[in-house]
Amino acid sequence: MKQILLLMLTVFYGCTNTFEERLFQFTYEVIIEPTNGKKLELWIPVPKSNEIQTVSNLEFNSGDLLYQVNEEKVHGNKYLYIREENGTSDSTKLTMTFSILRKEHGNVKYRNVQPGRYLGSYSTVPTGTVFASLIDEQKLSKNNMKGVYDFVLSGMHYGKPKSIDDQYYKEPWLTAGDVYGTKGVNRDEVVSLYQKAITEENNYTFGNGNSVYACDIGVGNCTDYHSYFMSLGRTMEVPVRFHMGFSIPKGEKGKISGYHCWADYYSENDGWFPVDISEADKNLSKADYFFGTVCCNRVELVVGRDLSLEGHGELVNLFIYPLMEIEDKESTNFTKNFYYENL
C-alpha cells in the first residue's frame, strides 16, 4: 500500500510545473555628453508586459529633453525617441526605471503574435544556402528541434577574444590545440577576424548576430548562437524569434555588465518554446533545462531584428543599447549604466 501511495505521489508531483517568479526594479541610465548646439537624436528600447513579464511603475526622467514613446510596427516593440534640433550644451542624464515581475517559463501561447512573421531572412540572418546544406548533411528535422538545439550547442563555443591577451582567448574559453566552426579556424584566426572587422567596419565577427559567421567560425556570444539557431529553424520553415534583454544577477541589488539574448520557436499546437543555447554552453549541466525553459532572472526589452525606428535611416540589426546620432551621424558620446534591485 505504501509503495502504491509513493508511486501516486511521484506521478502527481512529477507532472506539476512549479515555475519561479522574481520581482525587481530595473534602471536604464544614459549620460549624454554635450553636443554643443548640434542636432541630437536618441533611441532606447522600452519594455512591455506580456504573458511572462509584467512591467509597472514605468518612469522617464530626461531633464530638459522632450521625448516620445513610439511603437515599432513589425514586432510591436516600444522605444523612447528624442529629437533635439539644438542639441545639448551640458551633460544630460536620462533614466528609465520600472518594476518588473518576471516568470520562469516553458512553452507559451502568446496573444497577438503572428508566427508567419518569423520565417524570413534578416540582413545578418539569412536562410537557405549553407544552412539548407547543413540540414541535409546533419539530417536535422523540423520535427526534432532538440536536435537543432544540440547541433548548435555542440558546434558553438562561447568566446569574444579581441586580442591574445583577452580573457576569452585563454583557457577555459578557447584552447590552443582546438579548431572551431565549419571552417576549422584556431583561436588566433578568431582574433584576426575581429581585428579585421574593426578595421574594415564589417560584421563578420562575434557579437553581431551574423549567423554565417557563427556557422563558419563557431565562436561568439549569445547573439551568434541564437542567430545560427534562427537561420536553421527558419530554413526548415519553423518560426523562430529573437529576444534581447538583460540577465539579472542573483544578488539583492547591483550593476549589470551587459545585455543577453535568447530565442524561441513555434509549434502549432503548443505555442512558443524558449531556448537559451549560450547559457547552456556556459553550464552544460543545464543543457536540457535551457531547451524549452528559461529562468526568471532576466528581462526582455526587444523582440526581432532589422527594426525600423522613426528618424533612423537604416534598419537596426540589434537594439538593446542606446542609439545616438549627432547631425545624422552615429555617435557614442554617451555613457550607459544598468542597475537592478529586488523588491
CATH class identity of the largest domain: Alpha Beta
Give average pLDDT, whole number.
94
The fraction of residues in strands falls at: 25-35%
Instruction: Quickly count the helices.
Output: 7
Structural class by sheet pairing and helices: alpha+beta
Low-confidence stretches: 1-16
Q: Give me the Rg, rounded.
A: 21 Å
**Count the strands?**
16
Biggest sheet character: 5 strands, antiparallel
N- to C-terminal distance: 46 Å
Regarding quaternary structure, what we see is single chain
Briefly note the CATH topology name of the largest domain: C8orf32 fold
Estimate nothing, just give the exact number of structural domains. Answer: 2
Order of helices and strands: HEEEEEEHHEHHEHEEEEHEEEE
Helix content: 10-25%
Q: What is the CATH architecture annotation of the largest domain? A: Roll
Name the overall outline: globular
Short description:
The chain has helices at 2-14, 129-138, 145-155, 187-200, 211-217, 222-235, 277-282; strands spanning 21-32, 40-46, 53-61, 68-71, 78-84, 92-103, 157-158, 219-220, 240-247, 253-255, 260-267, 271-275, 298-303, 323-326, 329-330, 334-342. The chain is α+β, with helices and mostly antiparallel strands and 343 residues long.
